[in-house]
User: Fold these one by one.
Assistant:
Number 1:
Amino acid sequence: MNANNNCRLCGGPTSKLFSKTILGKYDVDYFECGDCGSLQTEEPYWLDEAYSKKKLSNIDTGAAQRTLGNLGACFAVAKVFHAKNAIDVGGGDGLLCRLLRDYGINCYLRDKYASPTYAQGFTEPDFETPDLVTGFEVLEHLPNPSADLSDLFAYSPNVFLLSTMIYSRERSDWWYLSPESGQHVFFYSDKALKLIGKKYRYSLTMSGGFILFVRNASVIQMKLAKILLKYSRIIKSFVVQLPAPGVWRDHMQQVQEPKQPPL
């Protein structure tokens, strides 16, 4: 893993649990941290190859449905915490970013491994500090969470809305390991998420498969958000029935922007 076999999140001691074949050819060891309880691969030297096609993994057939569920969750959280400006980190092809803009959330996309098919023109925020940062199915991709999370939390919003499968002592047959894609390299325990919240001074709540880090929020807001996240699938059905003024607004913005002179 590294010189001392230390956890890449908390620095604690690790022990080997099992091995898996990654990308059909690399024999990779998986370790569990004795301190934070997280599961992680050895140092992920294969990531350039895993992301070489710069597109969705072909086994991620749930991406579209997940995006719709995320839309409901984002819409609810934005309303509860009065979030207007957002950044979707690791937003892939930009479909969620586009949908959020359609429904009035000023969202921009950040993803170094994908092309923003649906969010072209919306990768450079027009604000300094976002109110909301989202990152769905992103945390498990971070090769060095200690450093990578510092970059993520440097956005310093009041609200983070994230998702990843929580590790709770699963073994080598856990489907979420996704060895075929080679992109899932770190798996967080409940304890690890609590440590992250404490380190960066955010309150943590988990509901409906979502992870919510919040600061400067009331007890009522936290309770309401937890309830709404639990029913995000129902909320998405409501959201898609609403008018989508952002479609026309962004269209006009794009066609009226001055063109760059040819080189």
Number 2:
Amino acid sequence: MIEMIETAAGQGISRRAVLRAGVAAGAGLLIGGTLARAAGATEVALNAWVRISADDQVTLITSQSEMGQGITTTLPAILADELGADWRRVTVEAAPFAPAYRHPVYHWMFTGNSESISALHDLMRTMGAGARHMLIAAAAQRLGAAPEALIAEDGVVRHPASGRSASFGALAADAAKISPPAAPPLKPESERRLVGRALSG
């Protein structure tokens, strides 16, 4: 069985466009193409796939339907790994109908062909890494430290040299004002802590 939702015909969108999709600084809006969906009053969207609330809750979006292959756990785990989120604070939501969630190759929304994880793997890493970059940039401004001296893990950005830190929730509003990088650096495989582990969905 293949579930399909066709989008209007058009060209594919760029990686930068996807990174920017969903960002509405201070307004807590999730924007995907022409669709606007209100997030919670205290939530901030860093991109179309990542929302963070002031109480450190991280909401990750999955564009694929669960069909017995662990899609709704694996894809968010890939995203959370790159983000540096605390999995215990992660909530997963289904994507709305919007261009930002189209298949990166075929450019329409569907689940099928047993290819969800392979097709969206790199995109999920890029979305997580982009949001992490924004959080680290916001923390660098707040802590007065160089971004390269900071690490994001377990829902907190830390400055190991001084012991200072700031939670994702505290940084989210400022992070949403920062332009996402076009090609954010990805974590080395050795630093990925969620992918490959048994996780409760």
Number 3:
Amino acid sequence: MPLANTVYKITVVPGDGIGPEFCDATIQVIKAAWDGAPQLAFESYEAGADCLTRTGIAFPDETMPACKDADAILHGAAGLPGVLYADGTEAGQDFTLLLQKELDLYANIRPICLFDGIEGPLRNFKLGEIDYIIVRENTEGLYASRGGGTIVGDDVSTDTLVITRKGVERIVRTAAELSRQRNGAPRDGKRRVTVVAKSNVLRSFAFFRKVATEVMAGYPDIEVDYALTDAMSVHMIERPDFYDVVVCENFVDDLLSDLGAATVGGMGLGAAAELGDGKGYFQSSHGTAPEIAGKGIANPVANVLSGASMLTWLGNEKNDGDLQSAGLRIEKAVKSALANGSAQTPDIGGTATIKQATAAIRTAL
């Protein structure tokens, strides 16, 4: 256990749009759940589209060292419509993409599960029947071309999809180890890793599947399943109870994880943890929603759950059972406040403001 005078440094980057609102809500909930030692020291830094608009710099020099020095990083959301670079890409994305590269945050973990009290669009599925994790390779794939693609005049543009053996091996091992920690798929209780790739068309995806198969041979206790990317988008609607852990390339997973969140009620419930070896970055998986920024109706749940995941991960890293317990308490409080309706904001069918939803979660603690 850590010494009582230990300080855990949490770098907070609120970001754009509604990001600052739900980062504040998350910190309120964490402080309500954690009143012991070691101390959690939250320090805020800037990055994103709003920062670029005001200062001319999207990712200030002092922010990266603060992230590298932190025990964990909490982020809001990044990007604003119309704040673009000359090549048409969003300025706000620099923070996350550069951080993934610099800290080697290779595993993006996105839970997809039904919450009591939330009526998702898949009404034939009941509580407990949708509960799986999507594991996204976070450092290569199509997004590795960010800033490195080729534009020829005004006629041709190319980006390159990059798949490496190292990248596939470690992300598939992450998926398999997560499966071993779970109770299997809701449908049949089987521990299962589903490898998603458009392997029937692209050599890079065929390579992803080949290496994944080799890795999974070392996990005879886990069933291996395969799905083509397009088919998977149908399976997630028709038989989501079949899945335990799903693993795929960066761009593909970006699409599928958003679809998964929509199937259980919306992006406002989509938490995310981006992990490397000894490094953790936590944010909700949705965007900045500038159209509702400042109106007080943003849904804090995804970011609060990401904050809970941060405490649990940090507790595991530091061998701190109290931090682990605080993370689990926040998860339970969120579920309780959603179930009784007190934390349901307009995007998920309720009437609560962000302040009311935050207060409800704190009360549930």
